[in-house]
Amino acid sequence: MTDPAIEMNGLTKQFDDVTAVDSVDLTVESGEIFGFLGPNGAGKSTTINVLLDFVKPTSGTASMLGLDVSDERKTLHNRIGVVPEDYGLYDRLSGRRHVKLTAELKDADDNPDELLDRVGLSRDDANRPAGEYSTGMSQRLALATALVGAPDLLILDEPTSGLDPNGARELRNLIREENERGVTVFFSSHILEQVEAVADRVGIMNEGELAAVDSIDRLRQQLDTGAQVTLSVDREPERNLGDLPNVRDVDVVDGTVRGTCLEPAAKLRFIDRVREVTTVTDVRIEESSLEDLFASYTGEDTTDSQAEPVVSGGVA
Amino acid sequence: MSVRTIARKDLADASRSKTLWAVTVVVLLSTAGITGLLAATSGMAAGEVFTLSFQLAVTTLPIVALILAKGAITAERESGSLRVLLSLPPSRRDILVGKLLGRTALMLVATLAGGLATGLVVLTFLGGTVGSLASFIGFLGLMSVAFVAIGVGISAGSASDSRATAVAVGAYMILVALWNLIQGAIQYGAVELGLMTSGSEPAWLQLIGLFPPNRAADAAYRATVEGQFFGTDPFASVWLPVLVLLAWLFVPVTAGYLRFRDAQIG
Fold it and tell me: Scanning A218, A299, B128, B172, which has the fewest C-beta atoms within 10 Å of its C-beta?
C-alpha cells in the first residue's frame, strides 16, 4: 500500500549521442494527481516510454506500484490504465469491441457499456467502427479502455489533446472521481491550465532534466515573479522614477509605464510615484501567468516585448 | 489466453480489410479459372492438370501470403495501436504469436477455399482421386503458411510498414521470381571456380534448388504423387522438402521476434 505509485532513480536514456532523459529522480506518491509538464522534446515522452517498457533505459531504475517496469511488466500492466501518446485504434472494430478486447487482455469483467457511459460515448457511437470517430470520440474511447480493470494507477499522455473545452472539463471531473476512488493519476500535458486545475503536484521537464517538482502555488511563490503593473500616461515621464523598494524592471514604452511589483504595497507606491511626474489615464495589473512560470523553468520566452529601459539620469 | 485473444482480434480486424479480400479473390479466381480452362480444353489427365495448377499456385499464393502478413506488426506500429497493446499485459512474444496465428488462419481459409474450388473443378471435369486433391491442398497450405511466417517475421523485424513492404517484395522476387536465375548463376560460378564439373548435379546444388518454400512444396507434391515418401534419393522424397518447409515456418519469424523484442517503440 505504501509503495510509491511511481519511482525513478537516476533514470537516463541516451539515443546515440542525444541524452533524452538525464538522471531523473522522481517519486509520485500513491493517491496523488501528478502533472508532468514540459515543452516538446523535453524528454517527457521518453520518460513515459521507459515507464511503459517501450524503451529500455541506458541506466537507472524505474518502478511503478513497487514493481520493476521491465522485469515485472506483466503483473504491473494488469494494474495500470494507460492512454499512450499517439495511440491508435483499430479502424475496422467498434468502440465496444475495443473495450471488450482490453477487458479480455486484462482478464477483467468490466461491463463495456458502463465504462463507455462514464466517458460519455453513446451506445450508437459505441457500435460504430472506430475509424469513423472524431478525435474527441477516439480520446473518450481510449480513456474508456484505460479504465478497464479498475487500475490503481492511470497514466495519461497528453489526454486533453483533441478534446473541446467541455470534453476537457469532463476529463478533469473523471480524473478527480478516479482519484477519490484511490487511483493515482500521472498525466502529461503542455496545456498548463489543465494541469493547474487538477494536479496536486507538477514536475517540469526541460532538456531531459527534471527542472522542478512542487505544487503550482509553491512554484509560483519560489519564483517570485510578482505582478506586472502597466500604467497608461498622457505623456511619458521625462525624468528618472528612481529606485522603489520591491519594484523592478521599470520600462517606458509607447505611452505606458510598466513595472514589476513583488508585493501589494509596491503597486501603490509605484502608481503614486508615476502620478508625481505625469498623469495616469489607465491602470492594468497582471498577476504572473502560468506561462511565465513555465517559461522561467524551460527557458522559453513567451513575451516578445521590446522595452526601452529607463536609463539612469532620465530619458534625454 | 492473451495469444488467443490477439489472434481472434487480428482475424476479426484483418478479415474486414477489403483490399486484402480483393487481392485474395483475384489471385484465387485466376488460379482456379486457368486450371478450369486447362481441364476443360487441353485434354490432359487429371494428374497433369493438378501438377500444372500446383506450379501456378506456388507462384501466386506466396505474394498473397506476403501481402497479408507483412503489415502484421508494422501496421500496428505505425497506427499507434501497438502502443496500446504494449500498455496491456501481453508481452511482445504474445503479440507476435497471436498475430502469426491470426494471419495463418486467414491465409489457410483463403488457400483451402481456393484449393478446394480448383480441385473440384479438376475432379468434376476429369475425375481423379480425393487423395491427389488432399496432397494438392495440403502442400499448398503448408507453403502458404510458410510465406505467412516469413511475412510476419519481416514485419516484426521492420521499423516501418514501407520497409516491411519493400523487404516482402524483395523476398518474393528472390525466392519465387528470380530463383531460377540465381540458381543458374551459382551453378555457373561454381563451374568457373572449379567447384563442380559442368553438367553434374552435386547434392548442395540440388539443395539450393529446393531452398525456397515454393520449390520445396513443389518437390514435396511431386514426390507424393510418385509415392516417394522416404526414398533413397532425399531430393525426390517427401521428407527433405517438408523439413525445408518446416524450417521456413520457424526460422524467419524467430529472427523477426528477436529484433522485435529488442526494438525501441518510440
Answer: A299
pTM comes to: 0.84
Task: Name the segment(s) of chain A with CATH classification 3.30.70.
Answer: 224-298
Of B170, B164, B155, B143, which is closest to residue B61 (Cα–Cα)? B143
Domain range for B67: 2-177+212-261
C-alpha cell at B247: 524450417
As a whole number, mean pLDDT of residues B130-157 equals 94
Average pLDDT of B95-117? 91
User: What phi, psi does A48 have (nearest 5°)?
Assistant: -65, -40
Give the distance from residue B116's alpha carbon to the nearest chain A alpha carbon, in angstroms: 29
| H/E stretch holding A63 | strand A59-64
We find that the CATH architecture of domain A6-214 is 3-Layer(aba) Sandwich (3.40)
Query: DSSP string of A228-292?
Result: EEEEEESS---S-----TTEEEEEEETTEEEEEESSHHHHHHHHHHHHHHS-EEEEEEEEPPHHH
Return residues 115-174 of A near B (CB < 8 Å): 142, 145, 155
Count of domains observed in chain B: 1
How much is the ipTM here? 0.86
Rounded to an integer, what distance in angstroms lies between the CA atom of residue B37 and that of residue B39? 5
Name the phi and psi angles at B248, rounded to 5: -65, -30
Is A310's Cβ below 8 Å from some Cβ in B? no
Count of alpha carbons within 13 angstroms of residue B68, beta-carbon side: 39
Domain annotation covers residue B69: yes
The CATH number of the structural domain formed by A224-298 is 3.30.70
Statement: residue A305 has pLDDT above 70 = no
DSSP, res A308: P
CA of B131 vs chain A CAs: smallest distance (Å): 40
What is chain B's Cα-based Rg? 20
